[in-house]
Every structure is written in C-alpha cells, then in structure tokens.
Amino acid sequence: MFIDEVMILVRSGAGGRGCESYRKRADHKRIPDGGDGGDGGDIILRADPQTGNLFALKSKRIFEAEAGGMGMGNNRYGRRGSDCIVKVPCGTTIYNKRDELLVRDLVGSGDEVIVLKGGKGGYGNHAGFASSEGARAKDLELLLSFKIIADIFLVGLPNSGKTTLLKRLTGAGVSETEYPFATKAPQLGTYRSNFDELRICELPAIYQASGKGRGLGTHFLKHLERARIIFFLLDLKTEFAQDLKSGYDILIGTIKGFNAAFARTPRFLVVNKMDLLESKARKTLGLPDQENVFLISAKTGMGVDRLMTAAEKVLGVSHEA
Ligand SMILES: Nc1nc2c(ncn2[C@@H]2O[C@H](COP(=O)(O)OP(=O)(O)OP(=O)(O)O)[C@@H](O)[C@H]2O)c(=O)[nH]1
Ligand SMILES: [Mg+2]
Fold this sequence. Notes:
By secondary structure, the chain is of the alpha/beta class. The protein has two domains: 142 residues, GTP1/OBG domain (Spo0b-associated Gtp-binding Protein, Chain: A, Distorted Sandwich); 163 residues, Rossmann fold, CATH 3.40.50.300. Helices cover 13% and strands 26% of the residues. The chain has four helices and 16 strands. Bound molecules: guanosine-5'-triphosphate and magnesium ion. The site of guanosine-5'-triphosphate (GTP) has 23 residues, from helix 2.
C-alpha cells in the first residue's frame, strides 16, 4: 500500500519525579539526599532512505517517548527516558495539525527534527530544596505529507506505455499490462547511465475526467512538486484521446488545473509506440506544436537513448568522461 498523507499523535516522555529522602548522620541529624528525576525522552522525526512511504505510520498513529525515571535516595538520579524516533521517507513535510503551520521539510537522508522535547525531571531534595514532580508529557498532532523525490516523472494517458518505459530505463520489477489504469500508485526506479544515476517515477494515468475525481483522480499529482523534468507520454494508439494534440491538451490542462506552477517544470513530449508506424507515415502525425518532442518505442528501445541524452542535458549531467 502506498500512503502519502497521514496524521499522527506524538507524546513526549514525562519527567521523572524528584525524590525526597534523608539519611541519618551519627549525630542523628537528617541530611536530605533525594536525587533528581530523569528527563523524559524527545520525539524525533527522521528522514530514512529505507522507508518508501508513510504506510507504516498509518497503522500505528501514536508515538510515545519514554518517561524519565524517578529520583531515589542516596542522591541517585533517575534515568533519562529514551527518545522515540519516527522514521519517515525522504521528502516528508511536517505540519502542526492545529494551525497547519510548517514544522519542517525533511528531504535529505538523515535530516531530522525534534518535534517535542521530553519533560524536565523534578528536583530531588538533595540541595536542601523541596522535591518536585517532573514536567508532564506533552501531546502534539502532526500532519505528514510525503512528496516523492525523483528527477524525472512519467505522466501520461492510460496505456500510453509509462510502465514499459520505466522498466526499459530502470529495470524496475514492474510489469506493463494490456488494460488501462493498471498502475494505481507511483512506481520508482533508478536509471544508470555512464555518467549518473537518475530516479524516475511513474505516476498513475491521467485521462479526460481525472480532474473531476474519476479514474484514479489527481491527488497523486502533488508528487510533481519535486520533479525536475516531466515526460508527457502519449502513444500512437490514442485510445484515450482523439489524437496526439488533444491527448496533450488533456495532460497539460489537468496538470495546470491541479497546480499552475507545475507548467513551469521543464517537460518533454514523448510519443510512444512508434514501432506501430511505417517510417514514411511519421511526417503526418499531427504532433502538437511543442519544443522537445521525442518519438520513441518503449517496446523496441527506438529513440530512447536520444530521449535520455536530452534529459541528462537538462538535468546538467555532464557527459565529459
Ligand atoms: N507496440 C507497442 N506497444 C507498447 C509500447 N509500449 C507499451 N506498449 C504496450 O501498451 C500497453 C500498455 O503499456 P503500459 O506500459 O502498461 O502502459 P501504462 O501507461 O503504464 O498504463 P497504465 O499504468 O495502466 O496507465 C501494454 O500492452 C504494452 O505492452 C511500444 O512502444 N510499442
Ligand atoms: Mg503503468
């Protein structure tokens, strides 16, 4: 299951109670010797490259740090409570649920933030003061929103060949299918050229009615926020559009309708399934008037090297060995 939004409750560790205790000296005088309580554990959210999405948090929901230990006689201090570390995928944005304000964006591997400090331990009476309770545990509700970090996103009509291209480029263990809407959640793979590694992500298909919440809807388009290039995939069969031009209009219209800023991300128009066409017919395709048009066949590999060389150029991957 792929989960990219979740609400969790975190609770810091309470401070341990300070101790009131006395030892009797030989002359019968009472000397206070109660130790301080230990501090409670913190709640830490950490970006972990091994964590693929927020699914694990969805089922748990409540995360608690350990309370500090009580102080004891003979000046013994309570133990510090251990922290609770919540692992999230790289690319997770944390919001405070109450005011919806941003707490932190955790992008790089190992990035972390203390969202709640543990309660201070109470004082023991060892210094001659009265002993006290530790600070209480605190609760905080957080909204987590995960947006995939990838260089290239594949966006296209159903059955346009996104999975086939992802598989060809990355060897990802995904399988293409003959029926549409087969890919129901984003899928990732890593493309390795002689020069670099690029992360590539296929998003579920868009079609005419996606913007109205039909099919798989458009919720997952939020992942385009971190895209460096978007490949718009169309295919010669155009089962889900009248022709290439209207297919393109559906894709760009849906994306702009979701977030107009995404139209500024560099995009390549990739026309797939060219193996179905006689070479002399290619001139009459009626392609949309766009820069960066690439004719490929994800099935045979035709045109794919040229596409990726151009993508690497946009991404600033150096081709000098
Ligand atoms: N002839 C030909 N068929 C292709 C090519 N690329 C993909 N196909 C076929 O098109 C169908 C759909 O391919 P997918 O890769 O699953 O398409 P998709 O865009 O991932 O589809 P959804 O995720 O369901 O939207 C499959 O039957 C593929 O074998 C191509 O270059 N040439
Ligand atoms: Mg697919």
